[in-house]
Every structure is written in C-alpha cells, then in structure tokens.
Amino acid sequence: MPERGAARRILVLTGDSIGAKLAGPGIRAWHMALALAEVGEVRLVSMSTVEAVEAPFSVKALPKGDRAEFARLELWADLIVFQGAAMAIWPELARSEKILICDSYVPMQLENLEFDIEFDAVQAERRHAHLSHWMNQTLERADFFLAASERQRMFWLGALTALGRVNPYTYRDDRSLRQLIDVVPFGLASEPPVHERQVLKGVHPAIGADDKLLLWSGGLYNWFDPFTLIRAVAQLAERRPNIRLFFLGTKHPNPDVPEMEIVGKARTLAEELGVAGRQVIFNESWVAFADRQNYLLEADLGISTHPVHVETTFSFRTRILDYLWAGLPMVVTEGDHFADLIATEGLGEAVPEDDPDALAAAIERVVYDDATHERAASNVRRVAARYTWTTVLAPLVAFAMAPHRAADRPTRKASTGRPRHWSRLEGIRTAIMTGGVGGLMRRARQRLQRREAG
C-alpha cells in the first residue's frame, strides 16, 4: 500500500457488543464505520457479541483467541481502527505493518484506577501494570491517535512525548502534531430525535404525566456519584413532591461488563431515604439504542454527577451528547470538559462535588423556573450543531482518504516501538548519565551474578 493514498479496506475493531442495545464504545465504533464506509470498504468487528443488524458494511464477531481469523482480517485490511487496549487481546497488532489508528477517547489507565479502587492494592497494581504495558505499546506503535477533547489531547501528548513519539520526525512532518494526534469527540445524530411513543410519563406507575423528570442517561459506574444526587432529590421532594429521577441503565448490554457495586449501594441509599421506587427509579435493564430518544424527550433535565478526581479531569461523558441531541438543559458536577462547556455556554448549571444542597438548588432553578429552563434549552440546541457525527469525525475521514504511516515509523522497531538506533552503546551511555561509572560497574556485576546463578 502506498505511504499516502486512498484507503481501500478498513477494519474497525471494538471491544463492545453490536446490536439493538449499544453502549458508548459500540456507538462510537458504529458511527465510525458508517462514516468510513463512504470512503472505503469497511468491516466492523466486535470482540464481544453481535446481533443481526442492517448496515452498509460487514458486521461480525471475533471470538477472543481466534488468532487465525484475526490474521485473515489483518491481512485483508489496509487500515485498522481500534479502541483501548486491543493490543492486550491481539498482540499481533503491535507487529502489523498496516496503518493503525488508535481511538483513545477513554484514558483507560485513569478509568481503571477508579474501577480498581475497591480491590486489594497488590491486585490492582498488577492489573494496572498489565494495562499500562499494552497502552504504552499502543502509544509506541500506532500511526494516528484520536482524543475526545483538547484536554485529553494534552494528556496523550504528554504520554507520547514520554515514550519518544514527539520527536524530530513527527515534529517536522507537522509542527502542530495534528498528523499524529487529533481531536474526534463523541458525536450525535444530525437528524433531531422524534418522540414515537410514551415510555415514562403517565406510563410508569411511579411517574405521572405532569411530574418533573430528571434523567440519568447511560450506565451507572463506580467513578460516578449517584449518592449526592439521590440525597438532593430526597431533599427537593419535600418541597417539590412531583420531582422524579430515572436511572436509564443498570444492566450493561455487554455481557462481559458485570453490574458494578455502586448500583447496589445507590439502591440501598434510596431505600434508606424512603425515595426508592417513588422519587428515585432504577431501570432494571438497558434501553435499546433506537428507543432512547423516547426517554430523552420526556425528560425535563439531563443529570450527571461525579467525584472530582483525575479520571474526571480527562473524561468525556458520552451521555451528555444524548442531552445535547434531545435539547435537554443539564445540571452536572464541576471538573470535567462538559462542565466547563455547560457553564460557559449557559446550558444549565455546574455545581461543586458532594454538595446535595447546591445540587438540589440548581435542579430547582433549572427545572422549575420556566425562563431559566427555556434559555438553557435554546443554548443547548445551538451548541448541539457542533457535535454531529459528520462534523466530529471529519479528521478521521480525512486521514482515511489520505492514510499514511507515522513520520517516525521507519525509525522504530515494530515489536516495542523503541527507536531502531537504540543500541548497547546507548544503554551504556544512559547508565553512566543516571548512575555514573560506579553505577555502570554495579549493573555489570549484577548482570554477571545473574548469569552465573543460571
């Protein structure tokens, strides 16, 4: 395949399920495949499960461990788009000579730190070391990277710099480094949502036709904070008895993702406060992707609350895109990309973490003050146009139309990403710089002792 030229065969790999019910990674991979099908032949491959779906491209499941089938797919492709730690499942990616695009819209190293917070530290450290190894290998090998925001892009640029990918070759190729890593946010459909049937208001036994409905779109994961929200709703219900909070999804469509501990804890708190099944309702399943607009369009407010920690700082909460699509005003916790956008553009309110009083007051202002609600909704509709899939995927499509290997690719070993010119002399020079001649001699003695010990 030429260094720069139109892509002909594009493989899109996702670790998520593909079917009627989609979570964030699957939604993103699906829309990437749709956009890329305009410029090449696409195969969308799930490393989880696949249901029968209509698509202008091939969709199939790839069982983990089926190395022969992966080899056939890799041989077929000119360009491979993959998510997250795919190299941990398919190490062959690191040795592939094909052009690789890493969709790094989730900083998994940070997300997993929060996911593993409940585990034993030694076990968590092993998991973190394993993930970091494969993520670093991905950063050393891929030709082009996608971040979800400029904030994320700075994070990944730091990691790429530390691993030697920001170097004279990539810099001279493009001094903005957009040819190495660009921003592709999560997107939303260009077509506005249409309410097709009543699903909650006046239908659900706990939600009246005139109730004020807060919607928690998407799943409930350990790095969120539903507890402050439940307390705020319980407090608000004392003076606003028609307030309702609906958690849209608790059972993930990907069978490999178990129900998280936080779901049970949230249910317990709602029961203790006397609002479970009344003001606070948990959906026991997962809403079909093509049905979600019915829930969104019955809501009065989109909600998302979280602790403020490093995962929050670099996160990109994909549920916010659904709120934008549906024209929903929002109340969220401060500290992430979308909180800044909401505060700057007047899309609702951003409140401090772990403050049920402030959260209840913000919800009341945005939901019950008609002028405030309409002003925020108008701003949401204005900002939503920036985030359509057609707009946000433009850098990926442009790259696919003129794909090329990273400028430093010829200088790097395919297996590790370490520069080819790295030699034993470089190792000796580094040892002297870090530990002096004495340190070099100690290392030599230790190596000799290990050899003698067998």
What does this structure look like?
Helix content is 43%, strand content 13%. The chain is built from 19 helices and 13 strands. Helix 9 links the parallel strand 8 and strand 9.
In spatial order, strands of the major sheet run 3-2-1-4-5-6-7
Uncertain runs with pLDDT below 50, 5 residues or more? Answer: 414-423
Structural class: alpha/beta
CATH level 1 name of the largest domain: Alpha Beta
Rg computed from alpha carbons, rounded to a whole number of angstroms? 24 Å
Query: What do the pLDDT scores average to?
Result: 87
Domain count: 3
Number of strands: 13
Structure annotation, total helices: 19
Give the amount of beta strand, in percent: 5-15%
Alpha-carbon distance between the two ends: 46 Å
> What is the CATH architecture annotation of the largest domain?
3-Layer(aba) Sandwich
CATH superfamily annotation of the largest domain? Glycogen Phosphorylase B
Largest sheet: 7 strands, parallel
| Share in helix | 40-55%
CATH topology of the largest domain: Rossmann fold
Shape category: globular
